[in-house]
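User: My advisor, Dr. K., asked me to get a structural model of this assembly before our group meeting. I'm new to this, so sorry if the format is off. These are the inputs:
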Amino acid sequence: MILNIACLALLTIGVVIFFGAVIGVLRFPDFYSRMHAAGISDTMSTISLLTAFALFQLHDLSWPNLLVVGKIFFIVAFISLTGPTSTHALMHAGYQRRNRPPVRKQEPDEDMT
Amino acid sequence: MYSILVFILLFIVWIVFSGKFDWFHLTLGIFSASFVTYFSSDLYFTDRTIGLLERLGQLYRFCRYLFWLLYQILLANLHVLRLALWRKGLKDVVPTIIRIKTRLQSNYARYVLANSITLTPGTVTLRIEEDILFVHAISRKAAASLDGEMERRIADIFERAKR
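Assistant: The format is fine. Below is the predicted structure of the whole assembly, which you can bring to the meeting.
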């Protein structure tokens, strides 16, 4: 019962974040900020959806089910490695072509030097 | 020493992916894991001067860092969601590129920093030129979150011994 509620909560969070990502892709002004909106669905929503699946597997504890949980976390690891890479590749390609946003230099902190 | 570690890791991956515990599949796993270890064990941990105990410490600190990163990702997600869904949010979208000078030395630590910055919504690493990162931030608040805290934590994981 508690597991079901937790699964539902995580699924709802993931779907809401995906919804926000779609709205963001439609609303944001230029290419780069749209990529940011697409990036939020990479991280939090996939993590929460897959965690919900993993929790759902824990209904009956047995070795094969635990292995399925392990596989799901492998997927989470792969997504969190490849998602930023693809985002970076797209934005880097756009940066090299044209339409560069203004560069602002951030002064580093004193203790960073 | 390190090849044994690689073998154990590969064998764990085999067990998780195959999901069968009879002797046939386990011996197959041992064979293929040792085969891959023989071919490519020198690809996995390039810096072999670090001891195993130090590796364990790095792993522990890295896991602790992952939890902190997850919390940061949650906060940044809420920020970008507010920008996307609220009517007033669109005013706050001020895309800028920020140059950050990093003090991380090894390529791997820089890669972890760039990947963490990109994983956090609202900030994407555009390119790395030697020790300067070009980061694209979606708003003032996202830009303000790049205050060096993340870099300090990564330096604490990987380059503690060198300081």
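One thing worth pointing out at the meeting: Helices of chain A lie at 2-27, 31-57, 63-97.

User: Perfect, thanks a lot.
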